[in-house]
Specification:
The complex is a heterodimer of chains A (561) and B (305).
Chain A lengths: L16 H6 L10 H29 L10 H36 L7 H9 L1 H10 L30 H29 L12 H33 L12 H35 L6 H15 L14 H13 L1 H15 L8 H24 L1 H7 L3 H31 L5 H19 L2 H6 L14 H31 L52 H8 L1
Helix pairs in contact in A: 2-3, 2-4, 2-17, 3-5, 3-6, 3-8, 3-14, 4-6, 5-6, 6-7, 7-8, 7-9, 8-9, 8-11, 8-12, 8-14, 9-11, 10-12, 11-12, 12-14, 12-15, 14-15, 15-17
Chain B lengths: L1 H26 L10 H34 L17 H29 L15 H8 L9 E8 L2 E5 L5 E2 L2 E4 L4 E7 L4 E5 L4 E5 L5 E5 L5 E7 L11 E7 L1 H13 L7 H7 L19 H4 L8
Parallel strand pairs in B: 1-5, 4-10
Antiparallel strand pairs in B: 1-2, 2-3, 5-8, 6-7, 6-9, 9-10
Helix pairs in contact in B: 1-2, 2-3
The chains are: A mainly alpha (561), B alpha+beta (305).
Chain lengths: 561, 305
């Protein structure tokens, strides 16, 4: 069911002509931000499936205490590639994809600021990803040192094999990093300079604020990782000694450089998810976003604070007390802007008129799960507690509550929410709800057991464990398999609805936001005419559900007053 | 009238939440392994405190969400606005300032407990190689070695722990006397490792080339397991060692026995390398070959590994 009355839905179960005619554009070097957005989303979803399969193999190994499914080097390769794919080839580039599609539409631009650069950014992703995954075919396999790739273990390579898994891993991540930096330049420029007339900063949707904050973080922090990886590559291949502890190098410096990016990376992934909640929750609760300005500013606040928290990944890592204490306080402070967001979402749905369609289910489910992820995050900022659970499954559980139960749920909310806009067709609501419940139950079954396992001292990245941990591991593995199954109704729904779904109107959710004012799917240049924005965002309750004003708006407004 | 009732209901809900979250905080002790050091009790107290506050926040907001789902559902085809409020400055100020004060309080509590932990023999952290800076560092450092009754050297390499005791006995078991402050000098030979005994609530990375000390005071006799918590390669899962906490007399007795007897020393990684377990998928990818510990054959060792 959609918000629009049934007579507004054009029933058409014939294959979509646009899709049939235009599917080839998605294989082309298009500079249209919408095509690039879809290219990103579909490509990264394929990587998500691969990363998910690796996760299921890991969970299959962990269902019993001994090592009996994969041998230990393969297990190490599996979790290394699982983490790498999910972070660098799924969430971050998917966010780039959905942001690519939406940001120009939301700010009223015809395209991104640098369309050619945009296309180049995308086209670096598939070869980098294929290169990374192809390392499974090398004689000695993939990188095996975890997605952190800490030296000196990452420098232990097969003798006489210059092209090895670690080498491929570094090259892939550097390429993906360059793609992200180019994307960030494009997003920041677009948001600063391409806004439609009247689209002031405080009329921008929170999603755009979130993307702006996340992409500023990419610009500030990503060069640190790229630099660290290039030095690591020199150590690996050219015999330098930047990070070799027994040759005057310092592996702890690598950790600083790595986490200087990779902690903010969590917010680079999470901020767009928070932005998605800010779009979906008001639309389905029919309320204005409560505390819009606070939520917008909180996005920037999260970005700024998160630059100063990286050492909390290193509390046990030969870190002096003053540094432990300083970064404990800064890490805990992230709870303030994120708390503002969580309170804002809750206040938005309080005393509202809820419509529980699939995007809303995913958004509410994701926001609710973020509470557990966020609270465990504050716990981990407390040094004495972190010293106990660091590198245990408690961290894995906390992290997955953020990256899956919050961010991936938000991504699904976004896909369902903007599916009619992107494809011009509606998805099947029933299948969407089945997908939600399977995902919600599966995700909690998979990731909740990791918290007690970690508290009990089960170390992460082990391929065999003591029998006393088996009970919770069985639950987590079965949950993991359920999570794998949950994706099937989603794929069926997306493919089927793309081809045979009901035709969608321009604004099936009666949502505010410029993207809903153009056709579904939007034309090449997004708008017939660049809109002029004169009203605040999230103007729900207004019968027009629109932020575009007719030319005589002021007269009407004055008259009504 | 309705508004008053609403406030009453919210106040009642908060009282229930306080009681429930306090109870959950109490339960949190049982989620942890047994406490085997004086420090562990303090960490558990902090965890219980954090859990209680976390439960209050989670249940509070989740309760509002579930209540909304149950009672604020829109009638079919009703797309009018629920409440017209776009924001409330007082409320937004309150929910910004309250978490700020709360996290500062949490940080203060954590800081206090951290100070009490007394595990920080941790020293030699930041290498400042320039001669000018070294005295300044030495003067300012708050990570000075703490006094301890016993000192044991811990050696770790891929994939083997070994321990050297005051009488130069070397073993692959960590024996600790109960209720005595014991300094552990941690040394890594090849890659990064992490010293972790869950019952101690203590974890510390061991970095090759750096001297890192920690001080522990075991309080509960029994057998525990030392784990390597930082991924250290192929046989990482096998990087465990037995930790025995015993009375000072038993500890001394063990030292004497160990000096006179050869203890069987089986390295799990070596055993598995020689006879790999049967697995469904075999990659046979490269691995660093685990070495039988050299010090195993020699009971007495005088130099560092």
């Amino acid at each position: 069911m959609t918000h629009e009355s049934s007579e507004n839905i054009i029933i058409n179960r014939e294959p979509s002509n646009e899709l049939e005619n235009n599917w080839r554009q998605y294989l082309s070097f298009s500079t249209d931000h919408k095509v690039i957005g879809v290219q990103y989303m579909v490509t990264t979803f394929i990587f998500f499936l691969i990363g998910g399969l690796l996760a299921m193999l890991i969970r299959a190994e962990l269902i019993t205490p001994p090592s009996n499914v994969v041998d230990r080097p393969l297990y190490n390769g599996l979790f290394t590639l699982h983490g790498t794919i999910m972070i660098f080839l799924w969430i971050i580039p998917f966010n780039a994809g959905i942001s690519n599609y939406l940001v120009p539409l939301m700010v009223g631009a015809r395209d991104m600021a640098f369309p050619l650069l945009n296309a180049i950014s995308f086209w670096m992703i598939p070869p980098s990803g294929i290169l990374l995954i192809s390392s499974f075919l090398l004689p000695n396999g993939t990188a095996q040192s975890g997605w952190w790739s800490y030296p000196p273990i990452s420098l232990q390579i097969p003798p006489g094999q210059p092209i090895n898994g670690e080498f491929i891993w570094i090259v892939s991540i550097v390429l993906i990093g360059i793609s992200s930096i180019m994307g960030a330049v494009n997003f920041v420029t677009t948001i600063f300079w391409m806004r439609a007339p009247g689209m002031t900063f405080f009329r921008m949707p929170v999603f755009v604020w979130s993307v702006l904050s996340a992409q500023l973080l990419q610009l500030v922090n990503l060069p640190s990782l790229t630099g660290a990886l290039i030095l690591l590559l020199f150590d690996l291949s050219l015999g330098t000694q930047f990070f070799k502890p027994l040759e005057n190098g310092d592996p702890i410096i690598y950790q600083h450089l790595f986490w200087f990016y990779s902690h903010p990376a969590v917010y680079i992934m999470a901020l767009p998810a928070f932005g998605i909640f800010a779009e979906v929750l008001p639309a389905f609760s029919r309320n204005p976003l409560f505390g819009y300005r606070s939520l917008a500013i909180a996005s920037l606040g999260i970005a700024i604070v998160s630059i100063f928290v990286w050492v909390h990944h290193m509390f046990t890592s030969a870190t002096p007390s003053w540094m432990r204490m300083l970064f404990m306080v800064t890490s805990m402070l992230v709870a303030v802007p994120t708390g503002v967001k969580a309170f804002g979402w809750t206040a938005t749905i309080w005393k509202s008129k809820l419509h529980l369609e699939t995007p809303m289910l995913f958004a509410m489910g994701g926001a609710a799960m973020f509470l557990l992820g966020g609270v465990t995050g504050v716990m981990l900022a407390a040094v004495p507690f972190d010293i106990h659970v660091h590198n245990t499954y408690f961290i894995v559980g906390h992290f997955h509550y953020i990256v899956f139960n919050t961010i991936t749920m938000a991504i699904f909310a976004a896909i369902y929410f903007w599916f009619p806009k992107i494809t011009g067709r509606m998805y099947a609501e029933g299948w969407g709800k089945i997908h939600f419940w399977l995902t919600f139950i599966g995700a909690n079954l998979t990731f909740f057991p990791m918290l007690p396992l970690g508290l009990q001292g089960m170390v992460r990245r082990i391929s065999s464990y003591e029998p006393r941990y088996q009970g919770w591991n069985i639950v987590a593995s079965l949950g993991g398999f359920l999570l794998g199954v949950s994706i099937l109704p989603f794929i069926a729904n997306m493919v089927g609805s793309c081809l045979y779904g009901q035709r969608a109107s321009n604004n099936p959710w009666l949502a505010t936001g410029l993207e809903w004012q153009t056709t579904s799917p939007p034309p090449r240049d997004n708008f017939e005419e660049i809109p002029v924005v004169k009203r605040p965002p999230y103007d729900y309750g207004d019968p027009k559900y629109s932020v575009i004003e007719p030319p005589d708006y002021h007269q009407q407004e004055n008259h009504s007053r | 009238m309705w508004r008053f009732l609403e406030y009453l209901l919210i106040a009642g809900y908060i009282v229930v939440l306080l009681v429930v979250s306090h109870w959950i905080g109490d339960q949190a002790y049982s989620w942890m392994p047994v406490e085997a050091t004086a420090e562990a009790q303090k960490v558990d107290r902090l965890f219980s405190f954090l859990t209680a506050i976390g439960a209050f926040i989670i249940l509070g907001l989740l309760g509002m969400m579930v209540y909304s789902v149950l009672f604020f559902r829109a009638p079919k085809n009703d797309y009018s606005e629920g409440h017209p409020s776009r924001g409330d400055l007082r409320l937004e100020f309150l929910w910004t300032v309250t978490p700020t004060l709360l996290v500062l309080w949490l940080a203060f509590q954590s800081f206090n407990i951290y100070q009490q932990l007394d595990i920080l023999g941790l020293q030699q952290i930041v290498h400042l190689h320039t001669p000018l800076e070294e005295p300044v560092y030495a003067e300012l450092s708050d990570d000075q070695p703490k006094p301890a009754a016993e000192t044991i050297d811990v050696f770790v390499k891929q994939w083997d722990w070994s321990f050297r005791y005051p009488n130069n006995i070397t073993s692959n078991e960590l024996h600790l006397p109960v209720n005595r402050r014991t300094r552990l000098n941690l040394h890594a030979k090849d890659v990064l490792h992490s010293f972790y005994v869950p019952e101690f609530r203590l974890q510390q990375y061991i970095v090759p080339g750096r001297d890192i000390d920690i001080v522990v005071t075991p309080t509960r006799m029994g057998e525990y397991q030392l784990k390597d918590a930082l991924f250290s390669g192929t046989y990482f899962a096998l990087m465990t060692a037995k930790v025995q906490i015993e009375s000072f007399e038993q500890y001394n007795q063990w030292l004497t026995t160990a000096e006179n007897q050869t203890i069987a020393w089986e390295n799990q990684a070596v055993a598995e390398y020689k006879q790999p377990p049967k697995t469904l998928f075999k990659s046979n990818w490269y691995t660093v070959v685990p070495e039988q510990p050299a010090i195993a054959e020699k009971r007495k060792v005088r130099n560092d590994t």
